[in-house]
Amino acid sequence: MLRLEDRITQVTVEGMQALYGAGIDSKQVPLQRTRKDLNGDFTLVVFPLLRYSKKSPEETATELGGFLQEKIEEISDFEIVKGFLNLYVSNEYWSQFFASVFAAPRYGQVQLDDSSEKYVIEYSSPNTNKPLHLGHIRNNLLGFSVSRLVKAGGKKVEMVNLVNDRGIHICKSMIAWKKWGDDATPESIGIKGDRIVGDFYVLFDKHYRSEIKTLVDNGMSEEEAAKKAPSILEAQEMLRKWELNDPETISLWEKMNQWVYKGFDETYRKLGISFDKIYYESQTYKLGKELVEEGLKNGHLIRKDDGSVWADLTGDGLDEKLLLRSDGTSVYMTQDLGTAHQRFAEYKFDKQIYVVGNEQIYHFKVLSLILNKLGYAWSDKLYHLSYGMVELPEGKMKSREGKVVDADDLIAEMVANAEVISQELGKLDDFPENEKADIYYRIAMGALKYFILKVDPQKTMLFNPRESIDFTGNTGPFIQYTYVRIRSVVRKAKEKGLNVDYSFDKNLELDPREVNLLKTVYTYPELLQDAGKQLSPAMIANYVYELVKEFNTFYQHIPILKEADLAKRGFRLALSNFIANHIQESMLLLGIEMPERM
């Protein structure tokens, strides 16, 4: 079905030809939605058309307005404000529009078919040397929501996770456990597996820094001391043993990684995050090394005198990039080459999106360049969704020093805050305890997810847990509370035996507030497509907030259950029911579940 603005554009083109003999195309028609502070639904800016009409702005607008009103029955009236032609759409059109979308279970979303493009979206990508923290939360929430947005826009999506389960950082935790762990296990000391491994990573760094200081005090430069400290030499030797499949090293690596995976799974469950497939660096780095060796053989890469292998990117305005160390061990770039190659072989993707922080912009630029240098035409299908870091009121987080906000701790704090604030407001006093616990959790997760996702992904953000759980303003709980209010109205209507379904009535006179709600809903399909293209859940979050504000204006000024006119009451109940469903579906794109009572 042709959108109304497309029809207006098309008829404007016809009008320019009929009225002024001007052959213009649709791209030259400056049509836009009328600003909220002005009257009308669509505005045609006539100034660019004056060179064809050879008339004043008012004359041109008057003639075009008359032509459009004659040709398009949905245009009920128009007014001219200087060089702006404001068009009014009839009540009948908005009633008919509502009839067309009322029963749509996934309004605005595009159905997949065999021709749908395939997207692979990688997010999370944790290291197995520490638990997930606040930065990981933004990554996971963003990746999961972007995946749902892209799928809603009509793409096939594979949600994948690459676990960085090998490398020098993993060996640091292993060395610390061997030297100072006293055979501790998560069960023996009652700590989650990912946290205990993270504690050993911090412990390693503490001893490593102490060793560096001792060497510097004895006259060594800090740079040399960082390379020759006993702990780092032990970690490097362990990494070499790991790549040589030393049984003892592999056994400890497997044991400690299992602790971490179990901990990760628990945190993912709390966050409501899932993946279609999980990759492991330990399984992909070898393929990366094979690609490097092949590139070396074909003359695309260079080997230096110390045996290390590099990609020369100076011709691309960059520098040389290390791919294999002199001892033959691989680096992050090596495994990313292997993983990208494996995924394209598996999925033949149209686009591979990496959801990774903005400190890795250079890394992904280099990844595409090296794959192109190695002869892979699909290298231009890689895209880095770069997002800003999450900061706290007290500043940045530092994993090595243990100065991070643990994801599990934050979730627990959010749930506790939700409980305290709900009790202060007295919202759940009469609810059973088990239902209260579920509602606290949904409020907490709604607050956390919405607060993070409403911010443009590219921006650095400041996270304040208490501020996020506010039942007023642009927050998740405010939206959830409005949703619950609507559900309550609909429940009461059903209890009274009132019909909440809708049948089109062209003679129904709509209140301007009802029209404003429908006009907001009308914009959704286009906005959803734009959000998917821009990979921005913030666009959906802020749309829902505007929709909720519009509904609250409608709710506060117009009777629903007390309306005496049966046709009007039926329409308002149907509209309210639709808005509730629409809020619920839109918030699910953000991974947010709605409570049915609050």
Outline of the structure:
By secondary structure, this protein is α/β, with parallel strands linked by helices.
Can you walk me through this structure?
With 598 residues, the chain is an alpha/beta fold. It has 3 domains: 4-89, Arginyl tRNA synthetase N-terminal domain (Gyrase A, domain 2, 2-Layer Sandwich); 123-391, HUPs (Rossmann fold); 407-588, Orthogonal Bundle (Isoleucyl-tRNA Synthetase, Domain 1), CATH 1.10.730.10. Helix content is 55%, strand content 11%. The protein is built from 22 helices and 14 strands. It has helices spanning 4-20, 50-53, 57-71, 91-101, 134-152, 168-180, 186-189, 193-217, 222-228, 230-243, 247-271, 281-297, 332-347, 361-373, 407-425, 433-453, 465-468, 476-495, 512-522, 524-534, 537-557, 566-588, and strands spanning 31-33, 42-45, 75-81, 84-89, 118-122, 156-163, 277-280, 302-303, 309-312, 320-324, 351-357, 382-387, 390-391, 461-462. The strands form 4 sheets. It has a 5-stranded parallel sheet with strand order 7-6-5-11-12, sandwiched between helices. Strands 1-2-4-3 form a 4-stranded antiparallel sheet. It has a 3-stranded antiparallel sheet with strand order 8-9-10. α5 (134-152) packs across α20, α12 packs across α13 and α21 (537-557) packs antiparallel against α22 (566-588). The longest helix has 25 residues, at 193-217.
